[in-house]
Design goal:
It is built from 1 helix and 5 strands, in the order E-E-E-E-E-H. It is an alpha+beta fold.
Length: 75
């Protein structure tokens, strides 16, 4: 897993109906983008150091920007 500052870290629930956790990566401990990451969780608004497990994936910031640009503008 590789990430950059500003990417989102998404952790899927271990339970079928459990909540998904989403956070923004605010700091890296390795220049190659490998874990651990400092993440600011959007639901709790605090930061933690995390070593993501197999239930986590990274959503790059540039993909979110492209998706936003592809959506029609709201009027």
């Amino acid at each position: 897993m590789k990430a950059a500052v500003g990417d989102r870290l998404i952790i899927e629930s271990l339970h079928l109906d459990g909540p998904r956790r989403t956070g923004v990566i605010t700091a890296l401990h390795h220049s190659d983008g490998s874990p651990p990451y400092v993440v600011r969780w959007l639901d709790e608004e605090h930061e933690t150091l995390i070593f993501p497990g197999p239930d986590a994936h990274v959503e790059p910031r540039r993909e979110r920007r492209r998706e936003a640009e592809a959506r029609p503008a709201a009027r």
